[in-house]
Write a structure and sequence with these properties.
This protein has four helices and four strands; from the N terminus they run ααβαββαβ. The chain is of the alpha/beta class. The longest helix has 17 residues, at 85-101. A four-stranded mixed beta sheet has the order 1-2-3-4.
Length: 133
């Protein structure tokens, strides 16, 4: 379970709460769900889910503002986070190569954390931000 879903299911107050839309029939149920609950903002876990609902007629920000936790496509219309998977993989391979070359085995005594920063994509699916809270 993702932290986002966990928060929505267990940490937010009971009302007013819009239930998350889950399941195999996500794209088919989306129209009914958005009509019934009228959310202001929708957070998609992946951009491919956004692609599915736009194919069905959903338009953002007209129908609701939209963002994705993970934007993988080159199309930068959807706002959200772009993770640098290629760079993360390259660094992981370098780290593994170094450990093999140095004869290191097992769990290291002093593990290293490597951070590859994500990039926020403003996209066109959120309304303009005016800087006010």
């Amino acid at each position: 379970m993702s932290p986002l879903l966990f928060e929505q299911l267990f940490l937010l107050p009971e009302t007013p709460r819009i239930p998350p839309l889950l399941g195999e029939s996500f794209a088919q149920d989306f129209g009914k769900w958005i009509h019934e609950h009228r959310p202001e903002v929708i957070v998609f876990i992946q951009d491919r889910l956004y692609d599915q609902v736009t194919a069905g007629g959903f338009q953002s920000p007209r129908d609701a503002a939209a963002s994705a936790v993970k934007v993988a496509s080159a199309d930068q219309r959807l706002a959200g986070m772009r993770f640098h998977h290629e760079e993360t993989c390259r660094i992981a391979i370098e780290l593994l190569h170094d450990e093999i070359r140095l004869g290191q085995k097992g769990i290291p005594h002093f593990p290293r954390d490597i951070l590859v920063p994500s990039l926020w994509l403003a996209g066109e699916t959120l309304p303009p931000w005016n800087g006010a809270n």
